């Protein structure tokens, strides 16, 4: 949407100044993010964590290209109960704290292997998490994020059509066909 | 009828355009009757009004999940499996359907022309003679006023037109019909069939029978319908016309005759009874938007508003002759409501077969026709249940061992996982007088119509039948070598099965039934009821095919009566 607007603006601004141009192009390069209770930075961080979890592989885009952050924004903003929203927002803070504690910096400054190490560390924490006292969240915040990233990815266009086999109109049902390792699952 | 606006006078009126109303409309229009079809919902034209039908998963903002606000505003509709972001627009909003649950009852209702036929489950078995003979043999409700043999030609009649897929299994517990080619079982289902049938000689494992076109015949071409494409997105409306609905089939067919007038947004308030003429003359209709009341008139009137709505319309049709509701001399109108017991669910995992898979989406499951109390009473509960099961491989996102991030993880969770099986029941319930609906004296809906009070519950028989299914289901899964068997009682309220029937039952005796064997009200024979409310009992089968057959039979009979001048 923004992109289309930006291109038509370019036509209008053909005689404009370099400054105006740079502004339009910056808007063009930055994808429009879904609005809601998460900040733009939250969405970017979720995209990056998502990419560490489900990275791009040859011919198959990763979670960032699938824009899982936007999906999570839509779900957390529109589908979550208030207390789950509070839990999720607190989780974003805890996520940043954990990253800082583990690496001394922010996620976007890390190399890919460092990012993966952080995600594996969080996964281990989530796996052993048990509510200590009444009132504690039943789940670790990363478990919820991981679930949302996976759902967002495999229901995205990239995930559905590239990571899976998508048949919009199968035409028929075949009840018994061979499956060999390397075959993709049907979406 | 001199004071009646000529545009408001028809040969026949059909209230409701769902699966049975659509069939009434088709039969009446085909035989030359000028027919008015009324529906409380909005117009939904085939293909044109299926806004989500061709959308890809990622084109839904929440990928199918409904926003919390929508769910909180519609807690009843939200319980239905098909009520999601792809199909919510076809469900009546809770605020538009206030009713009083004296006992919990989930009343799932549509909001369009075509009714629930647009988002129904589409499983279409004939009833067997054991189903029809049940009440008489086991001494509950009343005897069915006709036999399987009497209905069988009408089953054939509707099957040929609607298009029913199925395998000719030769079972007397589930009679064969006029089938299009059957759907296939997958490898795991085939394996389960062999094991279950080897262990139990009285149990049959067959592929489901459903209203999907697996082959196109001329009559389907004439309806403009195409082969089912195995998308299984049916509740969005099918642009191929791959499954039977009023919208894709009976209503456009009726329209082509030139005899159909269809009025959406028309809420029927009551049937008009003329005390002098001694018959019904029309219906009072409230415009859903302007709330203006208009009368429409006809020689015969079909009430096919859906089980509970038909009860409501008839209870609200009071006159000097019928102070307690139309045709209700015996006080049984609204009573003997029954439903189907869906509470039992099982799931389990199956080992092996990693080299087998399937493609496309099949619109039916595997069926096991009832094997309890079939030939004689043998258990500590009455009647029985249909078992449905289906197997499949786990989809994306299943748990995988190894590193929990990175390229290998991404590939592993996308691969088809282990095989699993899901099993459920469809139990017969015994119609009881205490299970009833009635009109509220204090509360009306937004259109001024008295609200319905639902007072319907499970009984001890249902609990015993449920226990037997859960025990038997688990045993059969063990027989099949399944692991991790999980047994669930959903404890769901009656109604969520969306198979509610009764309240205006048929019967031979006017003292104990409302309708005669031709679905005419005993005491007002130019009013017919052929939707679920006419049913004497529930059987273990899905009901819609039987509604279709009963409707076609009744419509053709009443047309003959009309010709003979008997009405």
Describe this structure in words.
Chain A: It comes from Niabella drilacis (strain DSM 25811 / CCM 8410 / CCUG 62505 / LMG 26954 / E90). Chain A: This is Gluconate 2-dehydrogenase subunit 3. Chain A: InterPro entries: Gluconate_2DH_su3 (IPR027056). Chain B: GO terms for molecular function: flavin adenine dinucleotide binding; oxidoreductase activity, acting on CH-OH group of donors. The complex is a heterodimer of chains A (187) and B (567). Chain A has 187 residues and is mostly helical. Chain A contains eight helices and one strand; from the N terminus they run H-H-H-H-H-H-H-H-E. Chain A has helices at residues 2-12, 18-29, 40-53, 68-78, 82-103, 112-128, 141-154, 157-163, and one strand spanning 174-178. In chain A, helix 1 (2-12) runs antiparallel to helix 2, helix 3 crosses helix 6 (112-128) and helix 6 crosses helix 7. Chain B has a domain at 6-123 and 232-339 and 434-457 and 496-563: 3-Layer(bba) Sandwich (FAD/NAD(P)-binding domain). The model of chain B has no long low-confidence stretch (mean pLDDT 97). Chain B has eleven helices and 24 strands. In chain B, a hairpin with a 2-residue loop joins strand 23 (520-521) and strand 24 (524-529). At the A-B interface, helix 4, helix 6, helix 7, helix 8 and strand 1 of A face helix 5, strand 15 and helix 9 of B.
CATH fold-level label of the domain at 6-123 and 232-339 and 434-457 and 496-563 in chain B: FAD/NAD(P)-binding domain
Helix content of chain A: 55-70%
Radius of gyration of chain B: 24 Å
Helix/strand order of chain A, N-terminal first: HHHHHHHHE
Q: Give the oligomeric state of the chains in this entry, treating copies of one chain as homo and distinct chains as hetero.
A: heterodimer
Mean pLDDT of chain A: 87
Strand content of chain A: under 5%
Please report the two chains with the greatest interface, counting residues with C-beta closer than 8 angstroms to the partner's C-beta.
A-B, 50 and 49 residues
* Structure annotation, total helices of chain A: 8
Tell me the major beta sheet of chain B: 7 strands, antiparallel
Helix percentage of chain B: 10-25%
SS element count, helices of chain B:
11
Report on the biggest sheet of chain A: none
Q: Which of globular, elongated, flat, extended, rod-shaped describes the shape of chain B?
A: globular
Number of domains of chain A: 2
Poorly predicted spans of chain B: none
What is the molecular shape of chain A?
A: globular
Class of secondary structure makeup of chain A: mainly alpha
Strand percent estimate of chain B: 15-25%
């Amino acid at each position: 949407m923004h992109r289309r607007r930006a291109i038509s603006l370019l036509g209008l601004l053909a005689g404009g100044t370099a400054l105006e141009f740079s502004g339009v192009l910056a808007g063009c390069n930055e994808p429009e993010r879904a609005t809601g209770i998460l900040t733009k930075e939250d969405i970017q961080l979720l995209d990056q964590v998502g990419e560490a979890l489900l990275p791009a592989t040859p011919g198959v885009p990763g979670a960032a290209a699938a824009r899982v952050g936007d999906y999570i924004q839509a779900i957390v903003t529109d589908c979550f109960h208030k207390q789950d929203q509070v839990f999720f927002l607190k989780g974003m803070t805890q996520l940043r704290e954990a990253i800082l504690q583990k690496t001394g910096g922010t996620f976007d400054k890390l190399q890919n292997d460092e990012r993966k190490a952080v995600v594996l560390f969080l996964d281990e924490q989530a796996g052993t998490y048990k509510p200590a006292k009444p009132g504690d969240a039943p789940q670790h915040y990363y478990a919820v994020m991981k679930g949302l990233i996976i759902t967002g990815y495999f229901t995205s266009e990239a995930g559905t059509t590239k990571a899976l086999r998508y048949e919009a109109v199968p035409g028929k049902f075949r009840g018994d066909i061979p499956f060999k390792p390397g075959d993709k699952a049907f979406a | 009828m001199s004071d009646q606006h000529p545009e408001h006078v028809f040969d026949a009126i059909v209230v409701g355009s769902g699966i049975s109303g659509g069939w009434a409309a088709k039969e009446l229009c085909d035989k030359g009757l000028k027919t008015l079809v009324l529906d409380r919902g909005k117009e939904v034209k085939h293909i044109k009004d299926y806004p989500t039908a061709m959308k890809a998963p990622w084109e839904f903002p929440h990928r199918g999940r409904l926003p919390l606000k929508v769910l909180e505003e519609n807690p009843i509709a939200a319980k239905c499996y098909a009520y999601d972001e792809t199909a919510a627009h076809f469900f009546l909003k809770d605020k538009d359907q206030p009713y009083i649950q004296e006992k919990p009852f989930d009343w799932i209702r549509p909001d369009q022309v075509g009714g629930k036929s647009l988002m129904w489950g589409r499983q279409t078995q004939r009833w067997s003679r054991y189903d029809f003979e049940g009440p008489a043999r086991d001494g509950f409700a009343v005897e069915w006023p006709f036999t399987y043999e009497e209905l069988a030609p009408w089953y054939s009649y509707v099957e040929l037109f609607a298009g029913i897929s199925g395998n000719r299994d030769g079972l007397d517990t589930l009679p064969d019909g006029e089938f299009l080619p059957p759907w296939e079982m997958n490898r795991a289902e085939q394996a389960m069939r062999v094991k279950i049938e080897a262990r139990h000689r009285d149990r049959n494992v067959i592929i489901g029978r459903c209203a999907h076109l697996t082959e196109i015949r001329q009559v389907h071409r004439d309806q403009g319908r195409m082969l089912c494409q195995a998308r299984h997105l049916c509740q969005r409306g099918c642009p191929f016309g791959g499954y039977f609905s009023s919208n894709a089939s009976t209503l456009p067919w009726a329209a082509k005759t030139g005899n159909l007038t269809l009025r959406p947004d028309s809420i029927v308030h009551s049937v008009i009874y003329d005390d002098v003429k001694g018959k019904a003359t029309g219906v009072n209709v409230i415009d859903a938007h302007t709330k203006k009341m208009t009368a429409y008139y006809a020689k015969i009137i079909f009430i096919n508003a859906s089980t509970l709505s038909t009860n409501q319309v008839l209870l609200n049709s009071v006159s000097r002759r019928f102070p307690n509701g139309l045709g209700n001399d015996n006080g049984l109108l609204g009573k003997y409501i029954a439903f189907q017991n869906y509470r039992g669910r099982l799931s389990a995992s199956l080992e092996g077969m990693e080299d087998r898979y399937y493609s496309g989406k099949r619109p039916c499951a595997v069926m096991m026709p009832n094997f309890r109390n079939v030939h004689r009473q043998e258990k500590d509960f009455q009647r029985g249940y249909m078992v449905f099961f289906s197997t499949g491989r786990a989809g994306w996102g299943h748990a995988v061992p190894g590193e929990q991030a990175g390229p290998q993880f991404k590939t592993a969770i996308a691969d088809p996982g282990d095989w699993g099986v899901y099993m459920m029941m469809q139990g017969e319930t015994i119609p009881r007088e205490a299970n009833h609906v009635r009109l509220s004296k204090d509360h009306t809906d937004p259109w001024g119509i008295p609200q319905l009070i639902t007072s319907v519950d499970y009984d001890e028989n249902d609990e015993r039948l449920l226990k037997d299914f859960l025990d038997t289901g688990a045993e059969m899964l063990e027989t099949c070598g399944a692991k991790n068997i999980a047994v669930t009682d959903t404890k769901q309220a009656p109604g969520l099965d969306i198979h509610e029937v009764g309240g205006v039952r048929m019967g031979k005796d006017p003292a104990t039934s409302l309708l005669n064997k031709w679905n005419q009200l005993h005491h007002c024979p130019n009013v017919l009821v052929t939707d679920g409310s006419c049913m004497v009992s529930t059987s273990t089968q899905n009901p819609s095919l039987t509604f279709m057959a009963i409707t076609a039979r009744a419509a053709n009979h009443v047309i003959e009566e009309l010709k003979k001048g008997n009405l």
